[in-house]
Amino acid sequence: MSFEKKREKLVENLKERNILKDEKVIDAMLNVPREKFIPEEVKNQAYVDTPLAIGSEQTISAPHMNVMMCQILELKEGDKLLEVGTGSGYHAALCAEIIAPKDSNNPGHIYTIERHDYLAEKARKNLKKTGYEERITVIVADGTLGYEKYAPYDKILVTAASPDKIPPPLTEQLKEGGILCIPAGSKKFSQSLYKITKKEGKIKKKRITGVRFVPLLGKYGF
Ligand code: SAM
Question: pTM (2 decimals)?
Answer without folding.
Answer: 0.97
